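Look at one such:
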Amino acid sequence: MESTDGRWFAAEVKLGHAAVNEGASKLLAMRDKLAEPVRAACGALVVIVADGPTYLRDDGVLVTSIASLGP
């Protein structure tokens, strides 16, 4: 998704926490393939899971549950 100011974010949806590393790896690989001006505009890389806490991984990927996105 892209905002009106050009920042964008990408999300990967996974059913459980066992697949978080896979999702994060795919997001990071995708971002790293982009040209620098586009890569620099990345606002967030997010792995969405069914449940659990929201946290920021050491690699900068945000992990959150679908329930935390709203009603």
User: Anything to note?
Assistant: The first strand starts at residue 8 and ends at 13. The mean pLDDT is 95.
